[in-house]
Amino acid sequence: MFITGLALTLMWVGGICSYLSNDKQSLLKNKLSPVIGWVVLIGAIFFSSMLFSQFYAPVTSVIFSIGALLFNWILITLLAGHWPQKPISVSAVGLVFVVLFAQFGGA
User: Fold this and answer.
1) Cα–Cα distance between 24 and 31 in angstroms, integer?
2) Residue-wise burial string across 28-49, b where 16 or more C-beta atoms lie within 10 A, e elsewhere
3) What local confidence, expressed as pLDDT, does residue 81 receive?
């Protein structure tokens, strides 16, 4: 469970960084550099897939990582709609939700 929670947390960090590097994000006044955001996302997908591959086949772990990323982007969009200009609140609530999801058997 710890490894799954760590992998989902990495995917959350990658998802939030890629969201913050988008022009249409509503959490920061100035967007994050796209190079930094997407490099963090690619690294998060890679390391998350490596962690998931301890339990699943390699192709399955990549698919699971991409599915977690899509789920995180939807969660970030919903949370950012409720708390615009509050990146700490969105990050904290989203991270708690993702960790609880992993701990209670959702992943």
Assistant:
1) 9
2) eeeebeeeebeebbeebbebbb
3) 86
Q: What Cα–Cα distance (Å) separates residue 46 from each residue in 2, 12, 52, 55?
A: 18, 13, 10, 15
76-91: average pLDDT? 85
- Predicted TM-score (pTM) of the model is 0.87
Q: Which helix (H) or strand (E) holds 86?
A: none
Query: What's the burial of 90, exposed, middle or buried (CB within 10 Å: 0-12/13-18/19+)?
Result: buried
In the predicted structure, residue 105 carries a pLDDT above the cut 70: no
